[in-house]
Design goal:
Blueprint (H helix, E strand, L loop, with lengths): L1 H43 L3 H22 L3 H23 L7 H4 L1 H8 L2 H24 L8 H42 L9 H18 L3 E8 L2 H8 L1 H17 L6 E6 L2 E7 L3 H17 L3 H4 L7 E7 L6 H17 L5 E3 L3
Enzyme class: transferase
EC number: 2.7.7.65
Keywords: Membrane, Transmembrane, Transmembrane helix
């Protein structure tokens, strides 16, 4: 159990890193653009040293961008850290803490938490905190080396605050999208059969119970189809399990193509599939089953199996009855399916009344 928890803590960081590096590339582009603006701003405000520092910064961000582009991520990290730490420190020492250059250091916090393992994140955050505090304490005792007029200092402060505000907003929206995407993927993994793309048995049971509850409220008919691929073991034995998996995938496609958008389809187990037909009585459910069976006969399976095998299905049909639960309706469809199998397969059998 401890091993499982350990993996849960550390593996997601690995999964997130490709997305993180793409985000880092965008941030390098944005930061380079900001430094170009800084170049002209500091020239206008009479601080030529900081103006030309931004030329170096643009070059470092360009290097980081191309390092990320060619997956030289460690080089990119060194360049970005060196630029931000150096640029922020130099800006504070030259024109003062009130310039707001220290805000840029705070942007490392979410990046560190998302990209690094827990141990390295702690080390990096402690180092960043120490650097931040050191700069603050230093400016208690040291006057700015190249002070600028108070109005100009206010302009720089507001500009830095606005840039950091915009960047934090961008990062927050990105992390939110990442969380939503991860939740969607987890939901799909929890509800979908990976081989066929259909609902898995657990989620199909949940959806079926909802249909049963709706039937009890409204009395609208609900039809059930239980489908089984005939002689599937022989296909696996003759053509291999990869061919068998391909067949199951195409079986799911054929069933989907012959049904309505509101019909529910799931892989019930192995080569067996369950279909729930809302607002459909047993007669219409049987017609749907025959349509699916005929679609199997019309399909050329040789390209899928790599041989001359024909893939057929047998289908058991039932309709939900008043006062019964899901298992009873599925059980009657299963009994009808069994009769179809014993009667020669490639058949649709309706439940017995």
């Amino acid at each position: 159990m401890e091993r499982v928890n350990h993996l849960a803590n550390y593996e997601p960081a690995q999964e997130r890193r490709p997305q993180f590096w793409r985000l880092a590339m965008r941030c390098a582009q944005i930061a380079g653009t900001v430094d170009v603006i800084f170049f002209f701003l500091f020239h206008a405000l009479g601080s030529p040293i900081l103006a030309w520092v931004n030329v170096v910064s643009v070059a470092m961000y360009a290097g980081a961008y191309y390092a990320l582009k060619y997956q030289r991520n460690k080089i990119a990290v060194v360049l970005i850290w060196a630029e931000v730490l150096g640029h922020a420190g130099l800006g504070i020492v030259l024109i003062g803490w009130e310039s707001g250059f220290h805000y840029y250091l705070l942007m490392f916090i979410p990046a560190i938490c998302v990209s690094a393992s827990r141990r390295w994140a702690v080390y990096a955050l402690l180092a960043l905190w120490g650097y931040y505090i050191a700069l603050d304490v230093l400016m208690w005792y040291v006057e700015p080396l190249q002070p600028i007029p108070q109005t100009a200092l206010h302009i720089v402060h507001l500009f830095n605050l606005s840039v950091v505000f915009a960047m934090f907003s961008y990062l927050a929206s990105y992390y939110l999208r990442m969380v939503v995407t991860a939740q969607r993927k987890l939901r799909e993994m929890a509800t979908t059969d990976s081989l066929t793309g259909l609902f898995n048995r657990r989620h199909m049971t949940y959806l079926a119970e909802k249909e049963v509850a709706r039937f009890r409220r409204s009395g609208h008919p609900v039809g059930f189809l239980l489908l089984d691929v005939d002689h599937f073991k022989s296909i696996n034995d003759a053509y291999g399990h990869e061919a068998g998996d391909r067949v199951l995938g195409f079986v799911a496609d054929v069933i989907r193509e012959e049904l309505r958008a509101q019909d529910l389809i799931g892989r019930w187990g192995g080569e067996e599939f369950l279909v729930i037909l809302p607002d459909t009585d047993s007669i219409n459910a049987r017609a749907s089953a025959e349509r699916i069976r005929n679609a199997f006969l019309a399909k050329d399976w040789s390209a899928i199996t790599g041989g001359d095998a024909d893939v057929t299905i047998s289908v058991g049909v039932s309709e939900l009855r008043s006062g019964e639960d899901l298992s009873a309706a599925v059980s009657r469809a299963d009994e009808a399916l069994y009769r179809g199998k014993t009667a020669g397969r490639n058949r649709v059998e309706l439940e017995t009344i």
